[in-house]
């Protein structure tokens, strides 16, 4: 009887010691941390401030809600390609001209925008409002075909299809609304002719030209 009581008491004592070791260890860690902060309070505060500014450095160049897109126009003459950015980052050294931070290195792509100004001169009897738009819009079909068939005179292997940005299928959230109009598995070329699948016969036989244009608005 005495032996069994002593065995149970020893087991309870060992169990209590192992259970209390983790809280004691955590308490010791907090005590040492508090002692370190209290002893070197100025250094710890300075280290915290410096670490905060270093971590928040990328946020300085993050546009806030309501900011307008930044435009930067390069000169047409005497243009030079800006120096390339260092690998894995951007160059932050001062520049002789006020250029944006993202304007570094040669351009990755070019966006060519062609604006056609057309109109109907002389109003004849029998014309309706849709004819005013049908006449100028008919010129975009020839222009789209000319751009698609473009080739360099010196090198016929360099064509529009070999240099354009090839895209795959339309994003799913736009597939139902504008999936038929937006290009997919082809060059990224947007044209009003896409509303009629670049088929001029479909365009000429469309009785509601304005409704077709407004379908994407």
Automatic annotation (TrEMBL):
It is found in: Endomembrane system; Endoplasmic reticulum. Residues 100-214 form the SCAP N-terminal domain. GO terms for cellular component: endoplasmic reticulum membrane; Golgi membrane; SREBP-SCAP complex. GO terms for biological process: regulation of cholesterol biosynthetic process; SREBP signaling pathway. It comes from the Eukaryota. Pfam families: SCAP_N. Signal peptide: none annotated. Keywords: Endoplasmic reticulum, Membrane, Transmembrane, Transmembrane helix. The chain crosses the membrane at residues 44-62. One of its GO terms (molecular function) is sterol binding. This is SCAP N-terminal domain-containing protein. The lineage of its organism: Eukaryota, Metazoa, Ecdysozoa, Arthropoda, Crustacea.
């Amino acid at each position: 009887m005495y032996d069994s009581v002593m065995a149970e008491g020893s087991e309870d004592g060992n169990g209590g010691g192992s259970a209390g070791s983790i809280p004691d260890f955590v308490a010791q860690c907090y005590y040492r941390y508090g002692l370190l902060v209290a002893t070197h309070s100025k250094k710890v505060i300075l280290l915290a401030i410096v670490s905060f500014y270093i971590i928040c450095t990328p946020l300085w160049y993050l546009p806030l809600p309501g900011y307008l897109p930044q435009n930067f126009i390069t000169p047409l003459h005497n243009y030079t390609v800006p120096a390339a950015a260092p690998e894995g980052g951007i160059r932050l050294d001062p520049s002789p001209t006020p250029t944006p931070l993202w304007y570094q290195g040669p351009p990755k792509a070019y966006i060519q925008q062609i604006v056609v100004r057309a109109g109907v001169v002389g109003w004849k009897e029998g014309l309706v409002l849709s004819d005013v738009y049908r006449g100028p819009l008919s010129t975009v079909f020839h222009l789209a075909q000319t751009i698609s068939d473009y080739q360099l005179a010196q090198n016929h292997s360099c064509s529009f299809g070999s240099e354009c940005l090839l895209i795959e299928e339309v994003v799913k959230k736009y597939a139902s609304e504008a999936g038929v109009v937006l290009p997919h598995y082809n060059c990224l070329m947007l044209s009003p002719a896409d509303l009629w699948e670049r088929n001029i016969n479909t365009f000429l036989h469309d009785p509601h030209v304005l409704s077709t244009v407004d379908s994407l608005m």
